[in-house]
């Protein structure tokens, strides 16, 4: 299968991966044949890309990071908990009327860790664009997966990963206290509204620190995830080692997923674009060594993505070598003149060092998408 921008979908194409609702319920199943009406609905609910079945790429496997039941349970827990908190009173002692936050998220976190361990997930290839909003729930889960893989790569213990994961799942919980008209405003925020958005870090800390079953370090993840090495972050303007290591991982993952997700006010960036922006803050906003680990663990050209090569040929990423994720195996489908090959072949970019990826298919590139 391959990843196709929704604006380039055509009637008769068949879905290669499910489309999920905000709480993990299947809206469209694998194999559904798209109609013009369905394509318009996909555009309307904020999905930028979908995976499509294709004879030439039918053997390309798009790995699932989590089992479907784990993903559904996590999203439902995030949704129900955030909704309860948004309706509850927040005091210095925690959340009035809701006493199971720590227990609920500990159970979910153990399921996520079990999935990542059982599937030996070592690379981040989410490209989780087959899910409708609510953005906040999806973002919370994605960021959690990113930070857990990065934390494991840096040698954290199981207990440390559990704390990091809970802090990641709940890092934006303070946004439950922000008015929806501000949180979902499609236009540029004014200064007052931006200050309201920034307050979610301290609000999140206030919510979590009063919960007896939530580790205090998880609360500090919520407080510090917008701090930056050079002191330009918020809410406290912390610098360097003043920012906890967990919050530093979280800050990178939060920024990356925000850039690669569809928002009410912007389209999703492609992974390589977001990574370039992160690297622009290397050594100033983000720790250089941690960013290197992040880059080595993120598939900026995930399987199924259409790419153009410096040779002029185009194709679809079909496999990734985890040791060199920036140079995948590409199934070449057209020659340098744009002609469809009668016999497509796989090119391993780790062996063809003179050839590089120069472009990836987005909403405004490559012209028409041909599916066989």
UniProtKB/TrEMBL annotation:
CDD domains: HDc (cd00077). One of its GO terms (molecular function) is kinase activity. Keywords: Kinase, Transferase. It comes from the Bacteria. PROSITE patterns: HD_GYP. Residues 114-310 form the HD-GYP domain. Pfam families: HD_5. InterPro entries: HD/PDEase_dom (IPR003607), HD_GYP_dom (IPR037522). Gene3D superfamilies: Hypothetical protein af1432 (1.10.3210.10). PANTHER family: CYCLIC DI-GMP PHOSPHODIESTERASE PA4108, CYCLIC DI-GMP PHOSPHODIESTERASE PA4108-RELATED. This is Histidine kinase. It comes from Paenibacillus antarcticus.
């Amino acid at each position: 299968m391959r990843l196709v921008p929704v604006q380039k979908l055509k009637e008769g194409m068949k879905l290669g991966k499910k489309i999920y609702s905000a709480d993990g319920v299947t809206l469209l199943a694998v194999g559904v044949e798209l109609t013009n009406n369905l394509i318009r609905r996909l555009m309307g609910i904020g999905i930028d890309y979908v995976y499509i079945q294709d004879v030439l790429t039918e053997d390309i496997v798009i790995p699932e990071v989590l089992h479907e039941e784990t993903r559904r349970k996590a999203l439902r827990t995030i949704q129900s908990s955030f909704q309860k908190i948004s309706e509850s009173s927040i005091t210095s002692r925690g959340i009035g009327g809701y006493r199971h936050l720590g227990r609920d998220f500990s159970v979910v976190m153990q399921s996520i860790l079990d999935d990542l361990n059982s599937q030996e997930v070592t690379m981040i290839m989410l490209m989780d664009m087959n899910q409708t909003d609510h953005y906040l729930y999806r973002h919370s889960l994605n960021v959690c997966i990113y930070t857990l893989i990065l934390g494991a790569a840096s040698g954290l213990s199981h207990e440390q990963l559990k704390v990091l994961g809970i802090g990641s799942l709940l890092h934006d919980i303070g946004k439950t206290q922000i008015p929806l008209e501000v949180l979902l405003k499609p236009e540029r925020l004014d200064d007052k509204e931006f200050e309201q958005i920034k307050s979610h870090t301290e609000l999140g800390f206030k919510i979590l620190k009063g919960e007896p079953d939530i580790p205090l370090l998880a609360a500090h993840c919520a407080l510090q995830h917008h701090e930056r090495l050079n002191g330009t972050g918020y809410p406290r303007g912390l610098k360097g080692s003043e920012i906890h290591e967990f919050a530093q991982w979280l800050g990178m993952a939060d920024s990356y997923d925000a850039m690669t997700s569809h928002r009410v006010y912007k389209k999703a960036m492609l992974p390589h674009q977001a990574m370039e922006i992160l690297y622009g803050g290397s050594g100033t906003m983000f720790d250089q060594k941690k960013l290197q680990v992040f880059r080595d663990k993120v598939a900026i050209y995930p399987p199924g993505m259409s790419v153009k090569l410096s040779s002029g040929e185009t194709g679809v990423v079909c496999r990734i070598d985890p040791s060199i994720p920036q140079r995948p195996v590409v199934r070449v489908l057209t020659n340098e003149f744009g002609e469809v090959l009668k016999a497509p072949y796989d090119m391993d970019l780790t062996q063809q060092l003179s050839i590089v990826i120069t472009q990836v298919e987005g909403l405004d590139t490559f012209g028409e998408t041909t599916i066989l």
